[in-house]
Design brief:
Length: 208
């Protein structure tokens, strides 16, 4: 597999892990994710949903979710959205509209009647809706490619979620969603990068 070739280095007959930059990890895990078969994605997404079900959702009121970008093979949140609506109807789901000129996100209730339209990146976003302030959010599901052992994530490099999370309450639960287990260390973490509280993968939940 790609990861076994690029992420480990053989030295004097022993294999050692190599710490990598965001760009290196972004290229590596994009290629890895894009190579997944339909069957692999279905299995990973099914396991992710089962992991998400284990959280104590009854204690939360406002949960921010992302709408997956299919062309990037993002982990699918739609089954989770359906499950929350059925089993935790007290929860208000929230999703975002992105402004690519300012790098900011606006947040709206995601209801059954919410009309979603594609932006120029192909991301489905609410056209209109009831605005929700960042301070109201209890949980944020965060898309990413991979995360390191300290909760630092590799996204798409635009900084939307770091700016977004920086406006939220200190006690907001940020849950990364990834197909892949954590890597030891991202070498070029910036002072404005905001680490996650935890990350859900098909194999386990990591807490940071």
């Amino acid at each position: 597999m790609i990861i076994s070739v690029l992420y480990v280095l053989q030295l004097q007959g022993r294999f050692i892990l190599i710490d990598m930059t965001k760009d290196q990890l972004r290229k590596l895990y994009r290629a890895q994710r894009n190579s997944l078969s339909i069957e692999e994605k279905q299995a990973y997404n099914s396991n992710l949903l089962e992991q998400l079900k284990t959280f104590e959702w009854e204690q939360y009121t406002y949960v921010h979710v992302y709408i997956p970008l299919e062309k990037f093979n993002e982990p699918d949140t739609i089954p989770f959205i359906s499950w929350i609506r059925e089993y935790s109807p007290h929860i208000h789901l929230v999703t975002s509209q992105s402004d690519f000129e300012t790098g900011e996100m606006k947040h709206y209730l995601l209801e059954d009647t919410t009309q979603l339209v594609e932006n120029h990146w192909g991301i489905l976003e609410p056209l209109v809706g009831e605005a929700i302030a960042e301070e109201m959010l209890d949980v944020i599901l965060v898309p990413l490619l991979v995360v390191d052992s300290r909760g630092n994530r590799v996204g798409y490099g635009k900084g939307f979620y770091d700016r977004f999370m920086g406006k939220c309450r200190a006690d907001v639960l940020t849950i990364g969603i990834s197909f892949y287990d954590v890597v030891p260390k991202i070498t070029d973490v910036s002072e404005w990068d905001i680490p996650l509280k935890c990350c859900v993968t098909p194999n386990k939940i990591y807490y940071f």
